[in-house]
Write a structure and sequence with these properties.
heterodimer; A: 86 residues; mainly beta; OB fold (Dihydrolipoamide Acetyltransferase, E2P); five-stranded antiparallel beta sheet; B: mainly beta; globular
Chain lengths: 86, 89
């Protein structure tokens, strides 16, 4: 699992059937690389989150048929920029 | 399996129900600077050197096939001198 920061939400009206109506977020890692993650919790931009990758992402999404390889698993209570980069 | 050192615990109150109330730890993989988050079914202290499994083995190691983990700690290394088998320098 990785630590990411939520940048903004992402709207895609035309999408794969198995992505259904799940909400998506653009997240960045400590080096500023952007990725898209599925968000089953409801996060705000600026939140630090734990993201789950690979096949566990599909289970975390609530249904193993959902086609995702990155799912947000939780919002971190206390985190700051220094601990992220240090 | 990866050799990692435990940095500390991670508190995430708002989490998906699948993660249950398992302990999450911040770990640093040996030889890399990036931090990762691992599920800890063993009970580690900060500073411990541990072995962690990834991919689908991480799900089994966390207790069940349906547990959404991609990195799970499976053991604490009794003796680890970090000068052993050093890849860099």
């Amino acid at each position: 699992m990785m630590i990411h920061r939520v940048v903004r939400d992402l709207v895609t009206s035309k999408r794969n059937f198995w992505l259904a109506a799940k909400s998506l977020r653009v997240v960045e890692d400590c080096n500023g690389n952007l990725e898209v993650a599925l968000d089953p919790i409801g996060t705000k931009p600026g939140d630090y989150v734990v993201t789950i990758g690979i096949s566990a992402a599909r289970i975390a999404a609530g249904n193993p048929k959902i086609t995702t390889d990155l799912t947000i698993g939780g919002i971190i209570d206390y985190w700051d920029e220094d601990r992220w980069h240090g | 399996m990866k050799i990692c050192q435990v940095e500390g615990t991670l508190v995430a109150t708002a989490r998906i129900s699948g993660l249950q109330n398992r302990r999450l730890l911040i770990v640093k993989e040996r030889g890399s600077s990036g931090k990762q988050v691992a599920v800890d079914p063993v009970g580690c202290k900060p500073g411990d050197w541990v072995i962690a499994v990834g991919s689908s083995a991480a799900r089994d190691a966390a207790g069940s096939k349906d547990y959404p983990s991609d990195l799970t700690i499976v053991g604490i290394i009794d003796y680890w001198d970090d000068r052993d088998g050093r890849a860099e320098s």
